[in-house]
Amino acid sequence: MAIATVNPATGKTEMIIEPHSREEVDQRISEAASAAELLRQTSFAERAEWMRAAAAILDDQAEGLGELITVEMGKPIAQSVAEVHKCAKAMRFYAENSEQFLADVTLADPSTVSASRAWTRYEPLGVVLAVMPWNYPLWQVIRFAAPALMAGNAGLLKHASNVPQSALFLDTLFERAGFPVGSFRALLIGGAEVGAVIADPRVTGVTLTGSEPAGRSVAAIAGDHVKKAVLELGGSDPFVVLASGDVKAAAATAVRARINNNGQSCIAGKRFIVHTDVYDEFAAEFTNLMSALRVGDPLDPAVEVGPVATESGRNDLIELVEDARAKGATILTGGSVPDRPGWYYEPTVIADLPDDARLVQEETFGPVASLYRATDNTDALRIANQTTFGLSSAVWTNDPEEEEWFVANLDAGAVFINGMTVSYQELPFGGIKRSGFGRELAAVGQREFCNLKTVWKA
């Protein structure tokens, strides 16, 4: 895949960028390694000042950066601008809280370990490689970079090949804000070259957000070199509506959950599992709202759904829908490619899915929702847990016992009650099963790439 900006709304190539040579990659890793040594010696206060300056750059340039994001990957412009501001907010969060998150912890009674004092401390690992996707070109990177840099690490970025201008902006952002030269470096390379970077002895760990095959590959290489890895992979999140829930509110939220980012989000609600007593009401409301969505140019503020980011991604979506159609599923709305330039796909709702339909198990990355009728709460839980994924989930109920039962039994890294999944810098983010391992965000996410050092004193 070429390193290029190809506008998904038109299919036209906007910019082609030359990849970095092996010599350039080596130089950038060296710069990051040197920066990591400097960052270890800086204070939280210094790093916080630089991080706040970087956040200010984002807020100041939000409109232009939003347009860049939309041209590179196609999300509606208001969502792109909101992504930029969300990044700035997370950066300020870590500037404010990192010293507390990484503070030493002293054992209350050191005599239990025959010491006069015993404590633990968090120290940076060094240079960490981030392999990031295109769907949130800035947010996916910043939610790694802000905690990593505030912990005293340096970062390397292998970004998705279709968002190179976003990568180049991030390559200079932190230095512009005052961080040492090389603190964060983008590597314009192909996927086949990632293994060599992970194996480099100057690189101490890797984090990846992406597909399951990519995660398997990165984890295998990291394991072979005994390096820390954090993986956030795919998701086919269940959105469960029970008979006690607010059906109209659930349907309205379900639409936002499914079409946010043009449906291209790992944590989007994708499988809508509805108790039979309210299924017909929900299905009618949900389908009507999905069919009324305005599809068009994502730079138009009135547009609600833009194109799928890549032609191959749309082809994958078409294959999944056609497989379901051929096996007898019911298309309640959509299910076609609009007659227009670019990589658009109609907002689609599919019901009556047979067990052998690929949609039952595979992730849909686009504005396609699958609808399931559950005979009772036990059946709803069975359907929710039947995939190999376990990223997030949502449950709509006004019954406290139902709420507790689903929270306890859903196979997921998160459960959202009467709402849709959203990533917040204050809350840990990550999954189980084939959705990956490790956590991002909050305090625990920052500590993933720190050495937890135990100190014992006689």
Short description:
With 458 residues, the protein is an alpha/beta fold. The protein has helices spanning 22-40, 44-60, 62-73, 77-101, 139-150, 164-176, 194-199, 212-224, 247-259, 276-291, 311-326, 358-361, 377-384, 400-409, 442-447; strands at residues 4-7, 12-16, 105-106, 117-124, 127-131, 154-158, 184-186, 203-209, 228-232, 237-241, 269-275, 330-333, 348-351, 368-374, 394-396, 416-417, 436-437, 450-457.
Please give a handful of descriptors for the protein shown.
six-stranded mixed β-sheet, seven-stranded mixed β-sheet, 15 helices, 2 domains, Aldehyde Dehydrogenase, Chain A, domain 1, 458 residues, single chain, Aldehyde Dehydrogenase, Chain A, domain 2, alpha/beta, 41% helix
Characterise the protein shown here.
- The protein has 458 residues and is of the alpha/beta class.
- The protein has two domains: 254 residues, 3-Layer(aba) Sandwich (Aldehyde Dehydrogenase, Chain A, domain 1); 181 residues, Aldehyde Dehydrogenase, Chain A, domain 2 (3-Layer(aba) Sandwich).
- It contains 15 helices and 18 strands.
- Helix 3 packs across helix 4.
- It is globular and about 70 Å long.
- The mean pLDDT is 98.
What topology emerges from the helices and strands here?
Blueprint lengths: L3 E4 L4 E5 L5 H19 L3 H17 L1 H12 L3 H25 L3 E2 L10 E8 L2 E5 L7 H12 L3 E5 L5 H13 L7 E3 L7 H6 L3 E7 L2 H13 L3 E5 L4 E5 L5 H13 L9 E7 H16 L19 H16 L3 E4 L14 E4 L6 H4 L6 E7 L2 H8 L9 E3 L3 H10 L6 E2 L18 E2 L4 H6 L2 E8 L1
Parallel strand pairs: 5-6, 5-8, 6-7, 8-9, 10-11, 10-15, 11-14, 13-14, 15-16
Antiparallel strand pairs: 1-2, 3-4, 4-18, 9-17, 12-13
Helix pairs in contact: 2-4, 3-4, 4-5, 9-10
Family: Belongs to the aldehyde dehydrogenase family.
Protein name: NADP-dependent succinic semialdehyde dehydrogenase
GO molecular function: aldehyde dehydrogenase [NAD(P)+] activity; succinate-semialdehyde dehydrogenase (NAD+) activity
